[in-house]
Amino acid sequence: MSMVCPVFTLVSLPVDATIDTVMLPFDFIDRQRRLSESVGDTSERELW
To answer: Has UniProt tagged this entry with the keyword Lipoprotein (predicted)?
Structure first.
């Protein structure tokens, strides 16, 4: 039972790094969309 944690850690770290790398473009696009929406919200508030 003591081998479960080290084995899980050795397997999960590369998997996590791969998922983070694959998701990076989607995170960037989502961030850009949220920034553009927040800029639009601010300008609308200034008009009122």
So the answer is: yes
